[in-house]
Design a protein that fits this description.
Length: 328
């Protein structure tokens, strides 16, 4: 069953500096997330990958109501969680939580770990009395010693801060956790532990994850479906094994080819992605990827492509999607 449906979500930030249009008195906005649509099924994991600055965190924050979206709609469990724009409904925030990209900065420095991980209860379950027991339960759940409840955020390591972020995120048994780079900056063994914890929570509590990560090995290992984002748009979305086996969008193909050992028998092909990512302030006409695309033709700079179903069954926004040839 579909848990979350997003349609045409657009998020804009006001432009500062000389391009802001202050002399005209009009505020200018730049679209950082441009019309994202996706569905996430209950108890499954959808990974979002894409270059730095492509709008992944902005999209995640918009889903939590932390950044307002300009247009688009959201349906969670059959209901619209953002009634009249503005703040999402309380019941939604009870069921959806977020692990932030910067775990230490997202923890208030003056509160103990125990207070931080039980904060969701104080907001959503004021009837609960024994918060100390809840803090212990959550610390054990994420593999931290129970006496960590007394510590402060500056007294824990980056890996431990991720675990605290995870404990906070799962405190209320949510149905959806949005995890923004849950393993960034961690060594491989700690990454593995965090991912195993997430997998266990999914198996035991049927939590759905919307996972944002640069790490394509993590994407392949953890996700049922993969969405590849480029300049605020999803350029390809489909079952993870199919997207990796035969990416149809040239950007998805380049990203996957550039990953070491991503395709068996293929060598790292770092020359695949040439050129700088364009700024959202100067979005190219047509397909935003065309200035960097090895397969671009005149149509690509004139018209933005609409999503279509690729040969492998993914949804791809490209005028000339790649076809997998038998020798590939
Ligand atoms: N509060 C803000 N105000 C204005 N612009 C912002 C704001 N936050 C982010 N941006 C801009 O929006 C774009 C997308 O940023 P975002 O943080 O969503 O990217 P990202 O895909 O999460 O990148 P990364 O992989 O580095 O985390 C960037 O160009 C960024 O500079
Ligand atoms: Mg980010």
């Amino acid at each position: 069953m579909t848990l979350l449906s997003v349609r045409d979500l657009t998020v804009s930030y006001p432009v500062r500096g000389p391009l802001a249009g202050w002399w005209t008195g009009q505020k200018r906005f730049v679209d950082v997330v441009c019309g994202i649509s996706l569905d996430l099924a209950e108890g499954t994991t959808l990974a979002i990958a894409g270059e730095s600055g492509s709008g992944k965190s902005t999209f995640a924050r918009a889903l939590m109501g932390l950044t307002p979206f300009r247009s688009g709609s959201l349906i969670f469990d059959g209901k619209a969680p953002f009634p009249a724009r503005g703040r999402p409904a309380r019941a939604y925030l009870h069921q959806v939580s977020m692990m932030f990209q910067d775990p230490v900065a997202s923890l208030s420095p003056r509160r103990t770990i125990g207070a931080l991980i039980t904060e969701p209860f104080r907001i959503h379950r004021p009837d609960l009395r024994n918060l100390e027991a809840e803090a212990k339960r959550l610390l054990v759940l994420v593999g931290l010693p129970a006496d960590f409840a007394q510590r402060y955020p500056h007294q824990i390591s980056g890996g431990q801060a991720r675990r605290v972020g995870l404990a906070r995120a799962v405190a209320l048994n949510p149905r959806l956790v949005i995890a923004d780079e849950p393993t960034a900056g961690l060594d491989v063994s700690v990454q593995g532990e965090i991912l195993n914890l997430m997998a266990r929570l999914q198996a035991e509590q049927s939590v759905a994850f919307l996972m944002i990560t640069h790490n394509l090995a993590v994407v392949r290992h953890m996700s049922d479906r993969t969405a590849i984002m480029y300049m605020g748009r999803i350029v390809e979305e489909g079952p993870t094994d199919r997207v990796f086996a035969s990416p149809a969008h040239p950007y998805a193909a380049a990203l996957i080819a550039a990953e070491p050992s991503s395709l068996p028998g293929h060598h790292r092909h770092s020359a695949a992605l040439k050129g700088e990512v364009s700024s959202p302030l100067h979005r190219p006409d047509g397909c935003a990827f065309h200035p960097r695309c090895p397969a671009a033709r005149p149509l690509c700079s004139a018209t933005a492509p609409l999503p279509q179903v690729s040969a492998s069954g993914a949804l791809v926004s490209c005028h000339f999607p790649l076809q997998r040839t038998p020798d590939q």
